[in-house]
Amino acid sequence: MNGFKTVIYEKNENVAYVTLNRPEALNAFSIQMRDDLYEVFRAIKDDDEVRAVIVKGAGDKAFCAGADLTEFLTAPSAVKARQIRSRRNLWKLLLDIPQPLIAAMHGYVLGSGMEIAACCDIRIASEDAVFGLPEVGLGIIPGAGGTQTIPRIIGTARSLDMLLTNRWIKSDEAFQIGLVNRVVLKNELMKNAEETALKIASYNPDSVRLAKYAVIKGLDMSLQEGLELERRLSIK
Ligand code: CO8
Prior knowledge:
Elements: E1 7-12, E2 15-20, H1 31-45, E3 52-57, E4 62-64, H2 69-74, H3 78-85, H4 90-96, E5 101-105, E6 108-110, H5 112-118, E7 122-126, E8 130-132, H6 146-154, H7 156-165, E9 169-170, H8 171-176, E10 182-184, H9 189-202, H10 205-218, H11 223-234
Parallel strand pairs: 2-3, 3-5, 4-6, 5-7, 6-8, 7-10
Antiparallel strand pairs: 1-2, 8-9
Octanoyl-coenzyme A (CO8) is lined by residues 25-26, 28, 65-70, 72, 78, 108, 110-112, 134-135, 138, 140.
């Protein structure tokens, strides 16, 4: 599976690599990228050979600098642009992927870039990573799940601080607030992400999927319902 305009897809030893590939535009998320990612993740979801996925950005400067502002700004309105962009529900698809997703992030991680990372299960940042949510400053709100996924990761007050003030944070603060699992040297980012993915891929794939499912689904349940879910899954 290849030939995408904005994404590179690779697979090696049960690990899939999805590279956002528009380095000339800091991997800005375009409509074409939405379509390419949708095809890639739909295939990954049904591919039992894939046991872990690494999402990363091409080039030296960014994981993803958010939605492509040139597309947004040439649309009749930001609302129209958003309607076009949300026609394929990439965000629901990402949140439904049964295999663990690992975001390996360097440089700018902004707007929808941060929302892509929030759909991942493990977030690894290099020392130069910078995180921000410029949406409100642009007159809109996040539309890729960010208002729901990000507070579930870093809590309400921290999310609102970033969202309402457009305060960008560096990787050390991102680690302190739990936005990223760990911070590594830039030249060790891929090695670290790969070691993580290979470790996951070495485990029983059913156990991995069930554990992820129990944690993610349980977040939307009461403790009692969650415990019942765990009980049912543990005797499968
Ligand atoms: N969309 C399109 N092109 C971009 C984007 C983007 N989001 N970000 C960077 N680029 C392009 C630049 O235009 C530039 O292109 P060129 O070389 O042809 O001039 C190239 O990438 C390199 O960027 P810079 O020269 O600007 O690099 P700097 O290191 O000087 O600055 C920044 C890096 C600070 C990241 C800067 O590029 C920037 O502020 N980018 C925009 C960030 C942003 O606001 N993203 C949108 C977030 S909001 C979101 O994702 C939700 C949807 C928003 C909808 C808006 C509706 C009105």
